[in-house]
Amino acid sequence: MTALIVIDVQNDFCPGGALAVPGGNQIVSGINGLMRAAQAVVLTQDWHPTGHSSFASSHDGHAPYEVTEMPYGAQVLWPDHCVQGTEGARFHPDLHTDRAEMIVRKGFRAGIDSYSAFFENDRSTPTGLEGYLRTREISELMMVGLATDFCVNFSALDAAKLGFDVTVRMDLCRAINLDGSLEAACAAMKAAGVKLAS
């Protein structure tokens, strides 16, 4: 059984949003088409409290896109985005969310960021998605969404490490591409056995 994992297709990651991914809105129609035929659909949603530790505004003297050290390792500092209950945190209005059987909210712990749909950025605190997929007897995953080089990449790498058969539909993802991060992400996914398709 295959699940479609739709990653962070939220207003703040689309044009006009606080952390807009170029062309982020262009993938919505194609994702809706996949959802209509999918055996199972899971949505992920960035869901940060105000003042989250990954926000540059929470660190005096630091600017967005700088990298700082957190107790769990290196952390990119982002503009404030996807704050709980705000319009920016909502799914893109054209996304057909009614097809989703589960929504995984991540990044809600104030002291730790979460790129992956499976683990927080400490690489050990689970989101619960793995257990859901196992109990549904789902072994194959197709991933789409935002952004290719961060949340899609981390989710795909973790899924492959957990033993899932993972395909990333590159045509239905868009990247931030911060200092070559897209090329690095694609290389890492391929090395982990993730299939990159279009």
How would you describe the overall organization of this protein?
This protein is of the alpha/beta class and 198 residues long. Helix content is 21%, strand content 23%. The chain has helices at residues 28-37, 129-135, 148-161, 181-191, and strands at 2-7, 40-46, 67-70, 73-76, 102-106, 140-146, 165-174, 195-197. The strands form 2 sheets. The protein has a 6-stranded parallel sheet, sandwiched between helices. Strands 3-4 form a two-stranded antiparallel ribbon. The longest helix is centred in the last third of the chain and has 14 residues, at 148-161.
Secondary structure topology:
Elements: E1 2-7, H1 28-37, E2 40-46, E3 67-70, E4 73-76, E5 102-106, H2 129-135, E6 140-146, H3 148-161, E7 165-174, H4 181-191, E8 195-197
Parallel strand pairs: 1-2, 1-6, 2-5, 6-7, 7-8
Antiparallel strand pairs: 3-4
The sequence of SSEs as H and E is EHEEEEHEHEHE
Q: Stretches where pLDDT falls below 50 for ≥5 residues? A: none
Task: Count the beta strands.
Answer: 8
- Residue-averaged pLDDT, rounded? 97
Total helical segments: 4
Provide the spatial order of strands within the biggest beta sheet: 5-2-1-6-7-8
Task: Find the structural class using helix and strand composition.
Answer: alpha/beta
Question: What profile does the largest beta sheet have?
Answer: 6 strands, parallel
